[in-house]
Amino acid sequence: MVLSTAYGYVRVSTREQNEGRQLIALAEAAVPRQNIYSDKQSGKDFQRPQYQKLLRKLRRDDLLYIKSIDRLGRNYQEILEQWQLLTKEKGVDIVVLDMPLLDTRRGKDLMGAFLSDVVLQVLSFVAENERVNIRQRQAEGIAAAKAKGIKFGRPRGNLPENFQEIHKAWRGKKLSVKEAARACGMAVTTFYDAAVRFEKAD
Fold it and tell me: What predicted TM-score, i.e. pTM, was given to this entire model?
């Protein structure tokens, strides 16, 4: 009997600093730290050297843990392609920690496989739709900020391009923290934390 090996994959973009939460989730799933592969790439080019390295390492019957389904790809089609590559071509089992239904170890019969595929397609669509909504909210926020006379300049560090100007407008009470966060495409708490770090760096 071939023993399976547990692996984990973590992906964050340069604007999305949630690597810690993913690592904690994988540690709680008892994935060995040395078997966790992590990419920190922008969504623009989506080059994932560690993911490619992981693919070369994975063998049939190995087990791959990811925290959420959108770690596999940027959009609906890409997520489905990677899922098929991993489960059908490489024969790897996948566990999506945020969605217990997506655990291919439980779907070995025909009905289980069917349900897993249905859930996967629905979640992939939801993940892509959410990304589209985020981009739309950011565009709307930038437009609203420009309408208030806020100009945009060079980016600073890993912050959104418009962060410096939005931060200045927020501190000048031209924007509420909610409006500022929306203009940057961030959650309110993420924007506030970034603002604190930005001010300390000055």
Answer: 0.58
